[in-house]
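FW: tagging you since you asked about this chain on Friday. Here's the raw sequence from the shared folder, copied in full. Didn't touch anything.
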Amino acid sequence: MEPRWNNIVTGIIGVVITTIIALVFWAVFADPRGPMRMYTPLWFFAITAWLIVPTIWLYLIFENYPFTKLPIKKRAVMIPVSVVITLICIAFFFYFYGPLAVPYFSWPKLESMGVAKLAARDYSCYALAYSAIVAIFGMGIWPILFNNWPWRNKVEQPALGFAVFALGLSISVFLFQVLVHPHFGEAFPISQKFVAATPWWKDFALTYHGNFIFGWFVWAVVYLIMTATIWEGKPWTAARKQPWIGIFGLVGIILLSLLTMYVVLSVMDINLGYAIPGGRRSAGLYWRYLHSAEVAGFMLYPTLALYYYFGNVPKKFSEEVNWAIRTVIVFVAGFIIHQLYYLAGPALLGVPTSWDSEAQLALVWATWWIVPLVYHCWFMDRWPLYKTPVTES
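HL: got it, structure written out here
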């Protein structure tokens, strides 16, 4: 596919269209001033995060099978299919898995156990949202870092998809149990120490809260997506052969994510003073870990837009220089978007005016913003902004 116009014009049009779509649906479903008012903020965050998970399944794992047989225009049918899968997944957690196995996944189940309505909603939506983030990473590891090794070019769809899906699901469940489940052992008024281990990070993170995990884990999601897009697999492909490329990439992304989180925390220390263990709002460590994740979230849209709408420019320099310039572009754009969100968000999106309000969760918009983009780029191959190249006979 090639841009219908030049990269810059096509890219700007793509950004404008997907942003307008995101704003319109936000006004209807999420804006606290609108008709649905689903920004609590965790309720809409849970829905938004789970809207992305089926796109990973359909596009990365099953490679759009069986919809590849349809013309590009008609592949828009994948959007309602993906939304229906999301609704089924949320219903599964609310009405089956939560009531029968793990109550904190089910808002109705927690209410029936005596948990206040608002608290029940927050507990279950926290679990849903972060299980989705874990699934995005866990499901993306094998197709992105390991290039579906050892099945690539040996097994066709849908068998390939089912194999990768099963492996990705296993990875995701394991990661959730180790990274998120311990948080819920301490989240309720009575410690659940016989059901969930004491958070293993408490001594060095100086908090029991699971936000420590997501302070670096959302960066891992960002770097995984960068690997698949603007980084074009580098620098992990330096290992040259699978599975070493995948292992190098996985370890490298985790270490790079931890480093990035601590850099962001250091910047917060410089601007806000040192955090206080047990402190509230911007003075608290749990808040700063969460806002490291939010800074990461603002890198998602510029990463995807640069790759899909702007043709992954530049390409005229060496691979290393192109890689570095693209990375700088994304970080600068992400920082600017981060600042604009807090300036314009209250008027445009209806989010709290206080940047450190406990009801302020910038990840909700940062995640929602990419939903129309991935629908357009992954399901419809950017039509009509991109077209099939005309070949000379």
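FW: Residues 138 and 172 are 5 Å apart (CA to CA).
HL: agreed, and The chain has a mean pLDDT of 94.
FW: great, closing this out.
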